[in-house]
Amino acid sequence: MTAAKTYESDWAFEARLRRRIRNLILFSVALLISLLFFFPVYLMFSSSFKSEGEIFAIPMHWIPHEFQGFRQYEFAFESTRLERWYINSLVIAAVQTIATVFFGALAGYGFAKFRFPARNILFLFILSIMTVPFQILVIPMFVLVHQLGWHNTYQGLIMPGLISAFGVFMMRQFAYSVPDELLDAARIDGASEFSIFRRIVMPMLKPAAASLAIITFLFSWNSFLWPLVVAQNRDLVTLPVGLTYFSQSLDREPLWAVAMAVSTMATIPVILLFVFFQRYFIEGMMVSGIKG
Amino acid sequence: MGLVQRRQYYGLLFVAPAVIFFAIFFLYPIVIGFGLSLTDFTLLKPPVWVGLQNYQDLLNDRLFLKSLNVTIGFVLGSTVPVWFISLAMAVLFFQRFPGRELMKVLFFTPLLPSVVVVSVVWKLLLHPSGILSSVIGPIVGQMPIKWLFDLQLSPIMSVVVHDWHIAPFYMIIWLSGLTAIPPELRDAARVDGANALQSFLRVELPLLKPTAVFVAAISTIRAFQGFSIQFVLSPSQGGPLEVNTTLGIVIWKYGFQFFRMGDAAAISVVLFAFILIFTLFQLRLGRSDDFSLN
Q: Which CATH number fits domain A74-291: 3.40.30.10, 3.20.20.105, 2.60.40.10, 1.10.3720.10?
């Protein structure tokens, strides 16, 4: 009896030990890799509070010894047109996000709930757009914008990304789930088609619209190639393009602490979106995988 | 025409803004893109028709051929490791262990900064006096290491930065694939005596095939578009000695530095052909159900 009891507790002890060891190994491996991936982001943040002389200190200072407070941030605003870049990026991202969500929902609902002539061919057209990356369109798009006289204008910066095919595609998928009975009931009550869209369909598409809004904002906020080629005017520079001025000064060593301050500032809106809307953020990234 | 039938025409009204927009900002550029590739055009004078001459010239264009090499190297060099790393991380984060959620967030952080920010931060990390040089230099007995100026190292660094930035993205795609596998299947394999590795190879990996194809195709398609990392990270927008000059950078150079729009358009068409092959591959083998019409 006693022998059997000891045997059983030995067995339980061993199982617990094995689980602990397994947890410890998984924990250590995951911690090591996660810290490796997190390190550059941490370095960006911590360097933005260092003095220029401390940037290349060996061994590296994990925490700034000569803590600068927000001096490098202030210097970035004083020495460049950072404020302007920030506003430009925000305005462009805001306009493109609102337009993409609104027109995406409108067209997505149209494709999902109505059977009109040429519907399938028009939708195939939208789908085909998603297979063509912007890289390939940049030359003819520039020529088009040039023909329109929009070179170096906000229209030129904003218009090519005003509506996204992916937005239409994504909203169509979600618009299917709006119950037809609800739409028909509203029609019987005499609601106009557009007010049905505004009062019934839009509210039901809200979660999908949130995900679409987040990834559209990110896409626009991070876009580099188009602003680089279409806006040479110093008043129209966006944040990513402005940031390259810091890293590509040919004649002298870049001011790294300032560059890290600007980098941190460019990342803060994204971090806020991630922290406060994590679910929509991840969902948006997942579905956007389809876009390529 | 009945009321119900007439109502269907509202659909046309709803899709009209998007369709008209894409006719102007997609269809038209596509058409003039193909057209321009058959001309010499500098923006200043009207295009001059040259037929297929631009394409023929590409066959002997040193910079184009070099960039084709660079791009294929970047595609192969970046997609294969990122496929394995992201899968391994997904499998790791699929397990239960203490602190998992916090570490997942830490692992996810590289995805938050934009590609330009990522490149600028790595430019600091890879600076000859930077942290990576001072840590790894003494080990390999070479100080300083000029990561970005070395002809062999520099393209590898583009791959490292790219994979570091994008691995978390593919990790969440793998993770959603793993989550979709019914737990009963895994349990059944374990009951039948399979160990963790066998159950992974025999049960989970075959069920992950659509995700595997998807990640492979999407990462290939994206790597073909490589531009921003090489543009910002390298010392001279694609250097040193053009070892980081991808097709994307050549299109930019021909178009906006040399103003040879015809040649730039022809290279765009070639790049499109490459990407189309992998898009068709993905549509055929992968999640083609996502693109059904009904």
A: 1.10.3720.10
